[in-house]
Write a structure and sequence with these properties.
It comes from Leuconostoc suionicum. There is one protein chain. The protein has helices at 2-18, 24-38, 43-77, 80-92, 97-111, 114-131, 136-153, 158-166, 171-200, 203-212. By secondary structure, it is mostly helical. The chain contains ten helices and no strands. The chain has one domain (63-212). The termini are far apart. 85% of the residues lie in helices and 0% in strands. Helix 4 (80-92) packs across helix 6 (114-131).
Length: 213
């Protein structure tokens, strides 16, 4: 039942955002309220539960995004993002720039949490997209996919480390298997997904390009 409730919540959230074009934050609050009702939480306690959940998440992320944005601004102002972007473009070329983004994201994703890797890489992605005149989404999807896969599959990130402890599996084996599984997962959820999304819904790439420039 809880799993079914979560599925209903995800479908409702996507429906509110895509069909009714509601604000994402408002859609999350409405979905959380509906899910609370389905789970049988008293109406008087739902608002407290939502407040606690949002507050806990923001408390965790506020510091990361706060200092991360400062780090990203420092990288941008110091010209570090510009130099890194140009080096990647010169090494891989425009046609293989997605590979450069994936490799860079994978290396950073091994050592940093998803949120931290995101704020470190975003300034570089912006510069690359501008220099090669490419939609931001074309590079953002492979970057996000790679960081997510690294965070979810590879130790020392929390989830794979916890799984290895539960299964009494050596971390080295989990890391090796995680890397083997990560490669096709990143390819499918990054460049392959980009290819099909561009064919099915090319307008989104044009909108992102206009927004960027």
């Amino acid at each position: 039942m809880p799993l079914l409730t979560v599925l209903i919540g995800v479908i409702l959230l996507v429906f509110l955002i895509t069909k009714f074009k509601l604000n994402t934050f408002l859609s999350l609050v409405i979905t959380a309220f509906v899910v609370g009702l389905i789970l049988g939480i008293p109406v008087s306690d739902i608002s407290t539960s939502i407040e606690t959940g949002i507050g806990g998440q923001l408390g965790h992320l506020a510091i990361i995004f706060g200092f991360g944005s400062m780090l990203g601004k420092l990288i941008s102002d110091a010209g570090g993002g510009f130099r890194i972007a140009h080096q990647l473009i010169a090494t891989f070329g425009k046609k293989r720039i997605q590979i450069a983004v994936i490799i860079t994201s994978f290396i950073i994703g091994l050592a940093l949490f998803f949120e931290v890797g995101l704020v470190v890489l975003l300034p570089i992605i912006f510069v690359i997209a501008r220099e090669v005149n490419m939609p931001l989404l074309y590079l953002g999807i492979p970057m996000a996919a790679t960081l997510n896969v690294a965070h979810g599959f590879l130790p020392p990130h929390p989830a794979p480390t916890a799984v290895s402890q539960v299964l009494n599996a050596p971390l080295g084996h989990v890391l090796l298997i995680g890397i083997l599984v990560s490669i096709p997962t990143i390819i499918i959820s990054g460049p392959v997904f980009n290819y099909f999304l561009h064919r099915v819904y090319p307008q989104v790439y044009k909108k992102i390009l206009i927004f960027l420039f």
